[in-house]
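W.,

You were right to be curious about this one. When I first looked at the sequence I had no strong expectations either way, so I just let the prediction run and decided to look at it fresh. Below is the sequence, 89 residues in total, followed by the output.
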Amino acid sequence: MSTDHLSAWDEVRRLADEVEVQTHLASMDARDRWREIQPRLEGLEQAIVHSGEHTGDVVIAELRAVRDALRGLRDELVLQARGDFAHGW
């Protein structure tokens, strides 16, 4: 896997860890979205492990899709937390 793809995978793992922690305090909808992303994340990790240096376009596309889904969920959780904080939890 190229350095760029490793960097992208590192970002995906960091985002996943962050979102996982935040979903414990999140709405049911956010927890459901996290549960939908988790199997994709696990499948992606296995694909990366097995592909090694020859990561295919499909794996790269899924890496980007999972990253975007995690970013969207993280941003939603941050906005929700800000709203809860502003309203006194």
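Here's what jumped out at me. The CA atoms of residues 6 and 39 lie 20 Å apart. And, maybe more interesting for your project: The helical segments are 3-23, 28-51, 57-86.

Coffee later to discuss?

I.
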